[in-house]
């Protein structure tokens, strides 16, 4: 069945009619859900009316106004669906900080839109191939396009989550060594800010870069305690958050900072050992799959086959 087939044309027209009816039902003033501002707006005291010539912003044309009214609710619903899939603006901003990205939420949303368009293009190509070459239903082609768009958006969000996980694992590997370097620098007589600056200057990696950002915040006017707590908020490593709080408390109360840093480094090494044991336990279970399904059947075959051959010869 091709695209010029009467059944395909009827299916497309019926789909467009159904989509139009759904939009009319959902977006008419009687069924549209009103927010709190719209409910209390008629009861507020109005100020004096102003001329439209004095209103801020450039006046919009009739076509632009109509397009905004028609596409505005649909765009709001699309943004709401995108936030339900990938989190709201506050959650996304925190995830961007955890991933080490300096961009804004709007920039990431633009990237998601671009990925969604790319997925939609791939879905469109697959849909055209399925409809024209295989004679599939146009509804299946539309489903492929929608799945391509959603898949592109979700894939970009998955890459962000993967970046957060990789950055957390990299910081977990760097944290014991960096804590030891800080302890040595403090024991040698340097202050906490100078020690962090030395580590950031002489080391390379994700964690020294965060210490450099922490030193920059302190130089900009933030207190050491606030900068260390902010260090824990910007990183996906929980141990680093406890490290920042412990060092901040030690500075406020006058506790020997070198001992605190050594204890933090020892705790980080113990945590890394526990993580390695957990990873080894999971890998041990995964290694049972090739042993049970591939190696063990071959061992049984090699053990039983000579006996079967001897029985065949004797018979």
TrEMBL record:
Tell me which UniProt keywords the record has, alphabetically. Cell membrane, Coiled coil, Membrane, Transmembrane, Transmembrane helix
Could you tell me which residue ranges the Type II secretion system protein GspF domain spans? 179-304
- Tell me how this protein sits in the membrane: Multi-pass membrane protein
Superkingdom as given in the UniProt entry: Bacteria
Q: What is its main location?
A: membrane
Asked if Transit peptide is a keyword of the record, the answer is: no
Coiled-coil residue windows: 75-102
Task: From the Swiss-Prot or TrEMBL record, state where the protein is found.
Answer: Cell membrane
Q: Pfam families given for it? A: T2SSF
Residues crossing the lipid bilayer are 6-26, 113-133, 139-160, 285-311
Name it.
Type II secretion system F family protein
Q: What organism, scientifically named, is this protein from?
A: Brachybacterium huguangmaarense
